[in-house]
Design brief:
Number of helices: 11
Radius of gyration: 22 Å
Distance between the termini: 25 Å
Helix content: 25-40%
Largest sheet: 11 strands, mixed
Strand content: 25-35%
Keywords: Chaperone, Cytoplasm, Disulfide bond, Redox-active center, Stress response, Zinc
Structural class: alpha+beta
Low-confidence stretches: 5-9
Protein name: Heat shock protein Hsp33
Shape: elongated
CATH superfamily of the largest domain: Hsp33 domain
GO cellular component, one term: cytoplasm
Bound molecules: zinc ion
Mean pLDDT: 89
CATH class of the largest domain: Alpha Beta
GO molecular function, one term: unfolded protein binding
CATH architecture of the largest domain: 3-Layer(bab) Sandwich
Number of domains: 2
Number of strands: 13
């Protein structure tokens, strides 16, 4: 016997996966530098393989996940922090978000014909070739009661790291150094990132740039630039060891690491509410031969089935 809808309002099973220490914040004492090292570990594979995108799109999505994880962990907020990229390329829309508790999700909308044509011509396209011209937005959403904070800039640069650095250079007025990586490894898909932020020095209301501070920032970015993708994505290389290798001469202080998790917030109840707003004709059109309407969450790719007849009665 079919379970009544009111007992079946929860989400179907999706991986209950938490990666402790996914984000490791750190700072370099006495220097105008703070940073975060992000490693999604097995979470990258779990999130990315729920979608059936060609490898270049998967790599872009993995980097987007690492970016939102890094940026969200630098903010004090309750809610979700999201990256949205919208352009005229074969990947027409890319959304990745991370909550204040480290729950991650993404979706990419692709024009499959245009994507196939691009990949035929350029098997390893840049992120820019995938996205085309358009804009990127970063949004902090703290729920309906609070103002949404949003910054939007044009997409500039060849890869997502450069696009994000351009964002900070043009909209947030503080220097950032960003490396993002996502690759298929022997252990599956892995994604990660290293972000350095230039912060005001102690007592720092002065605009006058201290030469020593400038030199410290330069040194930190040069050291960060020696991190290889292979090291970043290697599960067997402990994060502390990696940070120590990069910054041990720069008075490295590591703060409390934060967890990342599989984080879709879809629910049967929420999708049912959406369906109830549709006109009867649309519902009939969506109905399959078996009498069900299937709604698929575009983030976690889970199918939710609703009996058409139940929605009809609710909508009247
Ligand atoms: Zn979902």
């Amino acid at each position: 016997m079919e379970k009544p809808a009111f007992l079946d309002r929860d989400r179907p099973d999706v991986p209950d996966l938490v990666v402790p220490g996914g984000v490791t914040p750190f700072y370099l004492a006495g220097r105008p530098v703070r940073g975060r090292l992000v490693r999604l570990g097995v979470l990258a594979d779990t999130l990315l393989t729920r979608h059936d995108h060609p490898a270049p799109v998967t790599r872009l999505a993995g980097k987007a996940l690492a970016l939102v994880a890094a940026l969200a962990s630098a903010l004090k907020f309750q809610g979700s922090f999201s990256l949205q990229m919208k352009g005229d390329g074969p990947v027409s829309m890319l959304v990745a978000d991370c909550t204040n508790t480290g729950a991650l999700r993404f979706y990419a909308r692709t024009d499959d014909e245009a994507l196939a044509a691009l990949l035929e011509e350029t098997p390893k396209p840049t992120d820019r070739e995938l996205l085309g011209n358009g804009y990127m937005a970063l949004t902090v959403d703290q729920g309906p009661e609070m103002d949404r904070h949003q910054g939007i800039v044009e997409i500039a640069g060849d890869d997502l790291s450069a696009m994000a650095m351009h964002y900070f250079a043009s909209s947030e007025q503080h220097a950032c150094w960003i490396m993002l990586a996502c690759q298929m490894t022997d252990a599956g898909w892995r994604a990660g990132g290293l972000i350095l932020e230039r912060i005001a020095g102690e007592g720092g209301s002065h605009v006058v740039e201290d030469e020593a501070a400038e030199a410290s920032w330069e040194t930190a970015t040069i050291l960060a630039g020696t991190l290889s993708t292979k090291e970043l994505l290697d599960d067997s290389l402990p994060t502390l060891q990696l940070l120590h290798r990069l910054f041990h001469e720069e008075d490295l202080h590591v703060s409390q690491p934060r967890a990342l998790a599989f984080g879709c917030r879809c629910s049967r109840a929420r999708l049912a509410n959406v369906l109830e707003t549709f006109p009867q004709d649309d519902l009939d059109h969506m109905c399959q031969d078996d009498g069900n309407i299937v709604m698929t969450c575009e983030f976690c790719n889970v199918d939710f089935r609703f009996a058409r007849k139940n929605i009809a009665t609710q909508a009247q």
